Amino acid sequence: MKPTSPADRLAQARADDSARRRRRALAALDDLTRDGQPINVSSVARLAGVHRSLIYRHAELHAAVLARAAQPPDVATGPQVSRKSLLTDLANLTDRNTRLSGHVARLEQRLSEALGHEAWRVTGLGAPSDTGALEQQVALLEQQVAELRDRLAERDEDLQAARATNRELMTQLNSTALGSR
């Protein structure tokens, strides 16, 4: 029998829409169960594309979600995990983390020392790495300085002698020039 009044047609359309959304929610619940996914009101509503309030408003939907969530999964999706295996994994990872932390600390120490030595060398505060060659160069330069001082002293003596000679010649020249006048 077809509804005749607009209000009847509107009520029928609303009932049809609600039935479609309930069917989508039940299909989503079946899909989650088949895939071994976690089942709760939010995951069913998300997969079905409906609001969570729809599931809470329909008692049979809410009961179905709670019942499926309480059931253990039918299909094993991977290796089963026990509390003991998780605790063992946690202990192993904690030990590995401790070892890696120690390794990182040692590497940081080595890097710090290398950077410190490099900074010390660049600033010139530390002893140069080729001190033997530098000591030879210093000795050679000291010898050259001594030789240059000796040559300078000889030239000073030559200059003083030239000046003395120049004074004598000037004196002779002046006395001859005064005498001829």
How would you describe what is shown here?
The chain is mostly helical. It contains six helices and no strands. Helix 1 (6-35) crosses helix 2 and helix 1 runs parallel beside helix 4. It is rod-shaped, with a radius of gyration of 52 Å. The N and C termini lie far apart (165 Å). The mean pLDDT is 88.
Q: Which spans have pLDDT < 50 for at least 5 consecutive residues?
A: none
Mean pLDDT: 88
- Oligomer designation: single chain
Number of strands: 0
User: β content, as a range?
Assistant: under 5%
What is this structure, in a nutshell?
This protein has 181 residues and is an all-alpha fold. The protein is built from six helices and no strands.
Question: How would you summarize the topology of this molecule?
Answer:
Elements: H1 6-35, H2 41-48, H3 52-57, H4 59-70, H5 83-123, H6 131-179
Helix pairs in contact: 1-2, 1-4
Tag the structure with descriptive keywords.
6 helices; mainly alpha; rod-shaped; 181 residues; single chain
